[in-house]
Amino acid sequence: MLQVYLVRHGETQWNAERRIQGQSDSALTEKGERQAEQVAERAKTLGITHVISSDLGRTRHTAEIIALACGVDVTLDSRLRELDMGVLERRNLDTLNEEEEGWRRQLVNGTTDGRIPDGESMLEMSERMHAALNACLDLPSGSRPLLVSHGMALGCLVSTILGLPAWAERRLRLRNCSISRVDHQHSPWLASGWVVETAGDISHLDAPALDELQR
Ligand SMILES: O=C(O)[C@H](O)COP(=O)(O)O
């Protein structure tokens, strides 16, 4: 059975400032680097054979720390990027007007093609995240990959594996450097295909990892 570990990157400057990142980028904070080192220590115990990361800076930096600890290289995959948040990228969450908040609500209220202007829909993100996850099935037998991605992207992936709609991801808090695990199984009794073994484990972190929506 293929086990795939999912890690959200360490805290960034804009996470701490409550600024929307999307496919824009900001550096890891000192706390974020410490989180990456702690998740790397846990990853060393998991038998990781591949580290595959979103190509954005915050995920690459986190992935490099994990890969070094596990003695493997980093492979980049842009399909693992965060949701493209269009015209709201770089904006502070607390400065959005009612219309702009309405655009964000569209993402999570079931509007099928809801998107922020110039941005991506949750369905489009879900399709690319599942494509990146399914690519792990082509790795050599016995592989145990670890994917480094983003809060909404991983929340959408885990939610849809559970059979929830892509926009349900706001009901699942995947904090900075949390570890989730999904397994691919063939079972006549249980659900065949991907199943969620763990979601949002932060027991390896020595300080509370705050979700940027909870300050
Ligand atoms: O700011 C964003 O785009 C998301 O809310 C969180 O994205 P991140 O997981 O890349 O920090």
From TrEMBL:
Pfam families: His_Phos_1 (PF00300). It catalyses: (2R)-2-phosphoglycerate = (2R)-3-phosphoglycerate. PROSITE patterns: PG_MUTASE. It comes from the Bacteria. Pathway: Carbohydrate degradation; glycolysis; pyruvate from D-glyceraldehyde 3-phosphate: step 3/5. CDD domains: HP_PGM_like. This is Probable phosphoglycerate mutase GpmB. It comes from Buttiauxella ferragutiae ATCC 51602.
